Every structure is written in C-alpha cells, then in structure tokens.
Amino acid sequence: MNENYVKQGYLLEDFRLFHLKGAAGIKTEYHYHEFCKLLILVSGSGSYWIEGQRYALQPGDAVLVGSGCVHRPEFEPGTPYERIIVYISPEFLKRESAEDCDLLECFNGQKSHVLRPGKGDRRLITLAQELERQLSGAEYGRVILSRGLLLRLLIQIGRDMNRGDALQPQPL
Hints:
Elements: E1 6-7, E2 15-22, E3 26-27, E4 31-32, E5 36-43, E6 46-50, E7 53-57, E8 62-65, E9 71-75, E10 81-88, H1 90-96, E11 114-115, H2 123-136, H3 142-163
Helix pairs in contact: 2-3
C-alpha cells in the first residue's frame, strides 16, 4: 500500500452496517481500509473516486471497494443524500465463498467498482434495508438471518455483474 494514503477504520466483527443521511457534503481525503466496503446509494447523488477513477452515482447504485483500494467519496454540500454502508471482513468473504461463488470477486474491480441496477430496480436497496432491520432487532435468529441476508445481497450483486444486463458505469 502506498505510504501517501491513510488507513482508516477498523472492523472487529465479520461485518458492520451503517445507515447515513445528510446534506452537509463530504470532504474526505483519499484513504484505504483493510476490509471490503459496500455502499448502496439510497437517494441523492454524488461521486466516488476509486483507484484514481471517478464514478458518478445515482440512487440504487452499489459501490464495491476492495480491501486496500484507495478511494474517497464526494458529495456536494447542500445536496441531500442517503446511503447504506457495509464493512465486510475479507476473511468472512473467503469463509463463506464456495466453488461456484467467490464472494471476493465482487470487490476486485475487474468488471467495475460500481453496479447500477436497471431503472426502478430497488432490489439491492430492499435487501440492504432488510439486513439493517434484522441487525437492529432482537428477534430469535436475527444473527443467523443477518448473515444470510448479507450473503443474499452479495450473491445478487455478483449475479447482476456476471449477467451483464445491469449497467456497470465506466469512470468519468
């Protein structure tokens, strides 16, 4: 990793979810994490820089940042936006992968770092919101169900990327 960039954040569990809303804008310097990061833009607009390339974001987009990838978000002040972010341990992804499903592939950027479902397709947002609901609840089996929902979300992303009918925006 390049010494010019700061490592940010830490992850002590298999995954962690954050649901953030704001309109203050984000001024974040380039940085990297030792974990993988999934961001789903629920509403608003902005852009994301990953490995020196800028991607314009639209609601419903999934941003996939691999462990060690240098990145930074860019949201304009005064522009409302809402996003769900999931930090995911690479060890969890390796452990949960199977012969026909390498979950780390979603984060390697070979197809794209951004997945754009078809117009009006809120499937990824819905899955992420259900994951959030389970994680914040106290119902029987919520821990197991949360793991399953995250896996379902990642598998859906992988299928969409491999199917090719979902857009994979090119850098600007």
